[in-house]
Amino acid sequence: MDASRYTYLGPEGTFTEAALRTLPEAATRVLVPAVSVPAALDAVRRREADAAMVPMENSVEGSVPVTLDELATGEPLMIVREVFLPISFALMARPGTTLADVKSVTGHPHAQPQVRRWLAANLPDAVWESAASNADGARQVRDGRFDAAFAGEFAAAQYGLAVLERDVRDVESAVTRFVLVGRPSRPPAPTGADRTSLVAYLKADHPGALLEMLQEFAVRGVNMTRIESRPTGDRLGRYFFSIDCDGHVSEARIAEAMMGLHRVCPEVRFLGSYPRAAFPGAATVVTDAPRPGTTEADFAAAATWLTRCLDGSF
Q1: How far apart are the C-alpha atoms of 124 and 103, rounded to whole Å?
Q2: Which of 137, 236, 250, 281 is the most buried (most CB within 10 A)?
Q3: Architecture of domain 186-314
Q4: Directed axis angle between helix 209-218 and helix 252-264, to 10°?
Q5: Where are the beta strands (DSSP E) in the chain?
Q6: Nearest residue to 76 (alpha-carbon basis) of 182, 1, 3
Q7: Tell me: the pLDDT tens digits for 138-165?
Q8: Domain boundaries in the chain?
Q9: Residue 126 and residue 102 in contact, taking contact as beta carbons nearer than 8 Å
Q10: Cβ atoms < 10 Å from Cβ of 99
């Protein structure tokens, strides 16, 4: 295996590729497109690639279910980086096509909610068909399956298409979060502005089961930035929770919250602690500011006090 290979949701010309190319190290890696998120992650599991860039969530449509599910199951993987990418679509078609000619449109399923109002106003009768990715939709337009596709404008030249409309988006501030995923290893060193991702399974469905999980974070002053339930797939009513929170596993408040989860959940999967990315338009990332009583110094002082109690030296 070429140790410098990174894979991503392809084909060439996806927003995922654009996100990957924002990383400085991408210039020194062989970048290999994959046909799907599972294929990209499985390439890492099989050691055919060192890491995979995949979409995690969009500010308009929410999380990408296939990514959440793939990270929650199978051979463990770990997130090492994240990237925020502003999203703006171009409507592209084969040369000579006009807007009036467009009867079918394609794109990734997450693209449609981001252009729904534009479609209603400009192509109300066009039939939408989902593609594996936006670039895959552009490829299918090139091959004659659909009339037009929504994708990043950079994909038009890649597939020999003409741009009919530029900067199409219902929400001006739309952003997609992508994550770089590798095999389990020591997490990157804490930066003071980090994110930790976890998957936790409920032990039993009973009143207060979710509250028990949430309290492990709340009592330690850990800010949860995302929590979502996903079906385990074995039967109705069984769920796991995909969680993001501010902080690093090396910090006492995060470590103790994770240990607390481990006590009350039958399974907890650590998905990594990694630097938070700067939000588009922000000059820097806001550093974590633990509330009083939950700083590293507070936890150290509490441990020292307990040791003195055990020694009888208080």
Answers
A1: 9
A2: 137
A3: 2-Layer Sandwich (3.30)
A4: 160
A5: 5-9, 30-34, 51-58, 62-63, 78-86, 89-93, 104-107, 127-130, 148-151, 162-168, 175-182, 194-201, 224-231, 239-246, 267-275
A6: 182
A7: 999 999 999 999 999 999 999 999 999 9
A8: 1-87+175-185, 89-168, 186-314
A9: yes
A10: 14
